[in-house]
Amino acid sequence: MKPSDKISKYVCYGEIVRSDTARRNNLDNTPDAATIEKIKLLCTNVFDKAREHFGVPLFISSCYRSQEVNRLVKGQPHSQHMRGEAIDIDCDVFGRVTNRQLFDWIRNNLDFDQLLWEGGINGWVHVSYKATGNRKSVGTISNP
Asked: Which one, out of 34, 60, 107, 116, has a CA that is 20 to 30 A from the CA of 82?
């Protein structure tokens, strides 16, 4: 796929595979076809709905991670990012919607597997989505 190819209404392929860690370490961060299908579900059912609700751009800080990229960023060993089921959104960078507003809206309005506030006070929103069996688990992780 080309970086400009659409994954969903608001998300391009380049956004879901972008990784400074992969680029710095010359690593392939390309998902297989089955993983791309999971990413399409995630983006359509979570990201696009949030984007439409708030009516402003939202920044994807991390989506797909190859096993090696996940290891280098010190991700969880069984991270849903590696399966195309998780996305990290940091909308504070645009200053129109806060990450807290996004977190609360997703929690109260969408189906999701896991919703995490990560990184402390100036954190970001981690949300995962599966085709079936979403747990609606909510939590907080403070990263060092």
From this structure: 107
Instruction: Check if the beta carbon of residue 17 is closer than 8 Å to that of residue 7.
Output: no
Which residue is it, tokens 């390309």? 30
Token pair belonging to 28: 């392939």
Q: What whole-number distance in Å separates Cα of residue 114 and Cα of residue 99?
A: 16
Exposure b/e, 23-46, CB count within 10 A at least 16 = b: eeeebebebeeebbebbbebbbbb
**The model's pTM:** 0.91
Cβ burial, residue 61 (10 Å; 0-12/13-18/19+)? middle
